[in-house]
């Protein structure tokens, strides 16, 4: 007799970075076992009560869940309320605002917990888990991922365009996309400076565009400020280059983590590429979503 499918509920707050983490875990579980995925959105719902009521209303009539997965502080109480109501396992991604003991399982990047506590309900990962996984198909794509100013990084558009012009000088099918943080007007400048290259606004690409492009990519360059895109690129199996931008907080946990990736030869900085003339393969392909999915299903 075939085993029944597991039912997964995903609570989303509308932030792509958070929702991609939940989808990354759920889709990895789906690759290991039969799983039905249902998405519940609390986007735009004001206040704690409003978000909980929205989650309760949207989940009415859905099949009883085995696991409920969520990322982002706005989702935490809705996650706990639904898990208690339906006696399902609660899985929170990233360090929660509530005590860890409130959740059945927490999966979080190791930089969220610098002291590396040992807890039965805590799984530490190298970076945030994501939807990207390596493909066995031939890789020929060349991709550039641009972020923007953040708490840890500033911005120098002219310096970025100079680097991109050097990287894409071979004109071998390069594609470039931005992020929500990319300064307004940068893509217009890039279209002029990098004439003939394919440039896509993240506002005009579907949700599956970037994961599919990463699976096809042989070379990927990522601006240093976009930590999530760095880990997505490292999960794709591509060779990954790092585009420097001004550092505002050199001793932050995020930047210390990036420096660690450089030291461990996961990333090739732009300065190293200039000397060697090529990107070095990563020390290993990151498969954190697959690893965590195996642990969850094993529990």
Description:
With 299 residues, the protein is α/β, with parallel strands linked by helices. The mean pLDDT is 94. Strands 2-1-3-4-5-6 form a six-stranded parallel β-sheet, with helices on both faces. It has two domains: 6-125, Response regulator (Rossmann fold); 141-276, Rossmann fold (3-Layer(aba) Sandwich). It has helices at residues 16-32, 47-59, 76-86, 157-167, 186-193, 209-216, 227-236, 253-263, 270-276, 288-298, and strands spanning 6-12, 35-41, 67-71, 89-93, 105-109, 122-125, 141-145, 174-177, 198-200, 217-223, 239-243, 268-269. Helix 2 (47-59) crosses helix 3 (76-86). The two termini are 22 Å apart. It is built from ten helices and twelve strands. Helix 7 links the parallel strand 10 and strand 11.
Attribute tags:
299 residues, alpha/beta, Rossmann fold, six-stranded parallel sheet, 20% strand
Quick structural overview:
The protein is built from ten helices and twelve strands. The chain is an alpha/beta fold.
**What is the tally of helical segments?**
10
Look at the helices and sheets and give the structural class. alpha/beta
Cα-atom radius of gyration:
20 Å
Distance N terminus to C terminus? 22 Å
SSE order and pairing:
Blueprint: E1 6-12, H1 16-32, E2 35-41, H2 47-59, E3 67-71, H3 76-86, E4 89-93, E5 105-109, E6 122-125, E7 141-145, H4 157-167, E8 174-177, H5 186-193, E9 198-200, H6 209-216, E10 217-223, H7 227-236, E11 239-243, H8 253-263, E12 268-269, H9 270-276, H10 288-298
Helix pairs in contact: 1-10, 2-3
